[in-house]
Amino acid sequence: MSEMGDGRIRIRGDARDAGERVRDRGRTRGINFYTRKWVRPEDLNANGSLFGGSLLRWIDEEAAIYAIVQLGNERIVTKLISEVNFEASARQGDLIEMGLIATDFGRTSITMRAEVRNMITRKTILTIERIVFVNLGEDGRPAPHGYTEITYDRDRTPGACAAA
Length: 164
Ligand SMILES: CC(C)(COP(=O)(O)OP(=O)(O)OC[C@H]1O[C@@H](n2cnc3c(N)ncnc32)[C@H](O)[C@@H]1OP(=O)(O)O)[C@@H](O)C(=O)NCCC(=O)NCCS
Prior knowledge:
Elements: E1 2-3, E2 9-10, E3 32-38, H1 52-71, E4 76-81, E5 84-86, E6 95-105, E7 109-118, E8 124-135, H2 160-163
Antiparallel strand pairs: 1-2, 3-6, 4-8, 5-8, 6-7, 7-8
The structure holds coenzyme A (COA).
């Protein structure tokens, strides 16, 4: 943790006590599970289980919000989603939770790892090792974001300074 000078504490790196972070649970260590979804009829495939496309849309949106909060810029785009490993599924009425952790801050990019779990069966639904977002400037070209570490605060959220 570090003192930010205005009385607030910034929690960095692998600190274990912030938000809804999952504590020491094997491979989910360090991942923040921010968002929960309730699987509804419109989210199902013909097999009656969760449609992968719905899940990927939710993850892309979740990852975009994460990138915006980490990089302090709304102008970010998905560059890469690595292999998606669907390990288990969900049925109508199940509750799922989506977790992300930044694994690398590049010059203009941020890389994160994703995991989705079924809260009812307690199984991992999928993992994605690399989701890469690129920070863009006003010209729409990649622009340096200047960050090297995860923030667990809202200090970089666009508009955070104006609202303070
Ligand atoms: C994102 C985009 C502007 C990047 O353009 P680009 O010419 O590849 O830019 P650069 O070569 O300068 O790379 C920018 C960053 O992306 C990273 N990158 C580029 N290609 C990559 C790849 N295949 N995998 C992982 N990272 C990659 C680079 O390493 C760099 O990161 P760094 O500065 O942290 O090292 C361009 O590819 C684009 O507009 N793509 C479409 C994005 C989009 O619309 N997404 C929504 C889904 S359709």
